[in-house]
């Protein structure tokens, strides 16, 4: 019995040491919020090739809807998504002429012709409806979404993946979820598209190892960061302008786990969040490498929580970008 007690004490001591070491590493390696822009990232091109300055999220809204599309090496998949989105948005505007919108495609330092492909839609629909923000270097999906959001004009802002995995017309579902939250008087609310209702089917199609990784990730999300949201990673989220400014101003993580920190920040600010089931289809060409991406996200989840615990990261006031 004494021997077992000694083993337990040794394990507890080891766990404490590991925890302290992780705290120190998390604190020392914590990057700060980076809202700076390269000079080239401050401008977009019109259909005639003129350079115009992007507006700021701090400005009053001048459109009903902004759609932010992060795109990295998406020259092949982007046209399918954009054709579907633009058809829907144009039809909606014809039915309701007071409805105004913009789509901002954020080229996240692509090595292919993503920018050229996106600019074809600027030429076709005008820069008033489609703008392209080309980042000088790759920031990661979270960084691309943030830079696009901070350049948007919409009263509400939709984040939508370039692969078109979610049916674009499902925006009506997340809009309904946002309206049900009744985001007044501060107009703070977020509506998240969710694939949680498809989980049983996805488990049946996945290998045992990938299923284990999925459930492990969900546990880490729940344990360290976000409570009450079953699917934090669906790339179809709708923000009120005020909620976007509040959350993206504090965002540190710029890669795959950025959704989790974003929702963690929202819950810290007590911003109401809806989760709404959407249609979703697996699209070939994902940039997510199953094992290493899940491992990276797991590490980021642990570090997100530890960095806020140690004070290395703090919730920011909504300050302007440079």
Automatic annotation (TrEMBL):
- Alphabetically ordered keywords of this record: Endoplasmic reticulum, Glycosyltransferase, Membrane, Signal-anchor, Transferase, Transmembrane, Transmembrane helix
Give the UniProt entry's GO cellular component terms: endoplasmic reticulum membrane
Q: Where are the transmembrane segments?
A: 12-33
Q: What class of enzyme is it?
A: transferase
UniProt KW Cytoplasm keyword: no
Q: Which residues form the Glycosyltransferase 2-like domain?
A: 66-244
Q: What is its EC number?
A: 2.4.1.117
Please list the GO biological process terms of this entry.
Answer: protein N-linked glycosylation
Q: Which domain of life is it from?
A: Eukaryota
Q: Where in the cell is it found?
A: Endoplasmic reticulum membrane
Q: Which SUPFAM superfamilies match?
A: Nucleotide-diphospho-sugar transferases
In terms of one coarse class, where is the protein primarily found?
A: endoplasmic reticulum
Which pathway does it take part in? Protein modification; protein glycosylation
Instruction: List the GO molecular function terms.
Output: dolichyl-phosphate beta-glucosyltransferase activity
Topology in the membrane? Answer: Single-pass membrane protein
Q: Please report which protein family the annotation says this sequence is part of.
A: Belongs to the glycosyltransferase 2 family.
- PANTHER family linked: DOLICHYL-PHOSPHATE BETA-GLUCOSYLTRANSFERASE, GLYCOSYL TRANSFERASE
| Protein name as catalogued | Dolichyl-phosphate beta-glucosyltransferase
Organism for this UniProt entry:
Neolamprologus brichardi
